[in-house]
Amino acid sequence: MKGTWKLHLRMWFASIVMFVLLYAICTLIGSFFGLHARPSFYLIITLGITLIQFLAGPKLVEMTMHVRPVSREEAPELHQMVEELAQKAEIPTPTIGISHTSVPNAFAYGRTRRDGHIAVTQGILGLLNHDELKAVLGHEMSHIKHRDCAIQTIIGVIPVVCYYIAVATIFSRNDENGNAGIIIGMIGLLFYFIGQLLVLFVSRIREYYADEGSIELGCKPEHLASALYKLVYGAAAAPESEIKDIQGSKAFFLNDVSNAGRDISELSQLDLNEDGVIAAEELRILSNSNVKISSTNKIMELLSTHPDMLNRVKRLAEIQENN
To answer: How far lies 201's CA from each of 11, 13, 142, 213, in Å?
Structure first.
């Protein structure tokens, strides 16, 4: 896919920076407790933490999102769509599952292309029509094709590790080192903040390229745009308790379920006939329009797992225009 090398370059760069941050905080904590070890020791510790997250990541996602495998007999149409998309993407057919939540969405996870998983929530079934659901599945298939699921899983844990190390050292007493614990803890919190921004940055890049990937697999831009529109309304209507339950996994979703209210106000401008669908003509009108994003929304985007929704749909409109 055109431009995919840029995706890989940015994601690997962010991953390397995250790894360096984790190595640095492990070295600092070792020094704080008087462990005078060689750099190779801290390198092994850092690799070990990364490997554990890589191996355990998919299972953690399944447990957190209550995913169960779904057979062909249970969901024949779902299986057929996934198989067709996998064939076009030239990757092994992912395992298909259903997540026990009413919040409408879908997500992909796994270590490699051969270990790919695609899950849909109960809430999405019946909400989207065939073409919209296939566009969503194409988006998730692209995540697996780009191999970005594993990277997101690995780097996602690093800020969390920095945070817990920071908290542990800030409140630790070490008479020999005086206030060193507080200093290391503050450095850990700084690394946590930087790491979180990098995780969010990588997550937003993934979404843009997965949208483009869905179109590359034969899905139409208006179908994906319309699906995003419906998912936003579905998230806004979902119980608050369920939104809170899935907060930790929202980076895997198609849209940021926490920003549904803000996204609705943006996307409602595109539904010119107010029929709850973004049609091809409405998307065409958007491609020739200027999109103005408020300063507040630009700042909020930096702190979000997903791109600004209006920018995202505008890009789909531009893809439609160029096809």
So the answer is: 9, 11, 18, 19
Cα–Cα distance measured from residue 313 to residue 308, given in angstroms and rounded to the nearest whole number: 9
Instruction: Name the DSSP letter for residue 253.
Output: B
Q: CA angle, corner 160, sides to 202 and 296, nearest 5?
A: 50
Token pair belonging to 176: 């020999």
Does residue 1 carry a pLDDT above 50?
A: no
DSSP character for 94? P
DSSP state string for 162-194: HHHHHHHHHT---TTTTTHHHHHHHHHHHHHHH
Q: What is the DSSP letter of 92?
A: P
> How many other CB atoms are found less than 10 A from the CB of residue 90?
8
Q: What share of the chain is helix, strand, coil (3-state, %, to 5)?
A: 70, 5, 25
The structure tokens listed for 277 are: 């669908």
Residues forming the active site: 140
Which amino acid does the sequence have at 204? R
CB atoms within 10 A of CB 222: 23
Q: How far apart are CA 162 and CA 17, in angstroms?
A: 13
pTM of the model: 0.81
Task: Enumerate helices (H) and strands (E) in the chain, giving the number of each.
Answer: 12, 4
168 DSSP β-pair partners: none
Q: What are phi and psi of 67, to 5 degrees?
A: -90, 135
Residue pointed to by tokens 């379920």:
257
Query: Tokens representing 181?
Result: 């614990």
Distances (CA, A) of 279 to 122, 150, 162, 276, 286: 25, 34, 45, 9, 11
* Residues listed for the chain: 323
Which residue bears the tokens 């369920």?
242
Q: How far is CA 101 from the centre of its chain?
A: 18
- β-strand partners of 67: 99
User: Could you report the per-residue pLDDT of 59-116, keeping only the tens digit for each?
Assistant: 878 888 889 999 999 999 999 999 999 999 999 999 999 998 889 999 998 888 888 9
Q: How far is CA 248 from the centre of its chain?
A: 11
